[in-house]
Design a protein that fits this description.
- The chain has 365 residues and is an alpha+beta fold.
- The strands form 2 sheets. Strands 2-1-5-4-3 form a 5-stranded antiparallel sheet. A 4-stranded antiparallel sheet has the order 7-6-9-8, sandwiched between helices.
Amino acid sequence: MASHLDFTAIRKDLDAFAGRINAMRAAPTLKAALLELENAEEELRVCSEEVERLALPCGDTDLQLELMSRAFQELPSPAFVLDDSGVIRGLNRRGTGLLGVTAVRAVGRPFAVFVEQPWRTTFRCELADVLSEGRPGSVVGRVGSRTGCTPPLELRLARIFPHPGERPVVLVTLDVFANHGGHHDLMAEAAQLRRLDIMGRMTRLLLSAPAVSGPEMLGDAAALLAAECCDFAVIDLLRGGVLRRAVVAGPVGTPEEPDGVVTCRALERLDPDGSLVAQTIVETGESMLHIPLREEGVLGRSQTGCPLPKELNAAFAVGVALRDETPGPLGVLLLVRKPDRPAFTLTDLALYEELGVHIGLALKR
């Protein structure tokens, strides 16, 4: 390998070569040849120094791999290496201690099975985002252990390409979640009060609507959600087994705006039957969090042919079913946020599911 070259011997040979050149300077017929040899000597010396410079920091590859393996095993926090399907391919000593199983039993199993149920879906969504976007991710949750209940942990995720052209892996490290007391408690309490305020305002709005509920009631409900929870709120209703767009709330463009500016009218003109999200929610009755807006046809396409999430500058979306106490959904509530707002959370989803029931009951009055 380059690191095993004897650079001392190379430098001695170059010095001897330079001495022989000086000894030949007495022969004038060799002047041109000596000049060429001097240039060659200088180039050889520069090349030797460059090779030596490159070889010194590289060291032995096997030694580097051994050092990296030891460093991984001796990390002060549990660490796991997952493949692009979320399966454990490696873990350090603290990782085996946390899970309470041997490395042989852990390797080959999906890491998500060790994450306790309330946080499992959130972890899988974050893992998918890290793999697709390449950005570092973070999730707070609990990881199941045979040694007993673990404290809340912060799971940090980072995508790594072992070698160019190979499939990526994800490094997951775990640390005890540091809840810094009063500030976090205050923020959590403020968020809870805001959710209760939205729920109360929606309840008053629906109770004060006329007995025969119509577009006006739905428009007011969507406007409240667009003002407090998102940038765009969309309500689709099932009519004769077919989804029909009922109302859209959000920013509205003006005739003076250039082509392509986001407006509610782009959503209003869209047939919800072309939305994969709406169709899936109607067919399964299940809510959708972390909707993959990058996939074509998720929300449908506009009349311009431009994928709708791009035209809306949409970054995050969540969808829930409108339902009452009878089986089967009555429609779909879809909320969309732009990149300047935070992503939807599981707590947000719980609020919107409850609001979906409130709106569904109001529709059936």
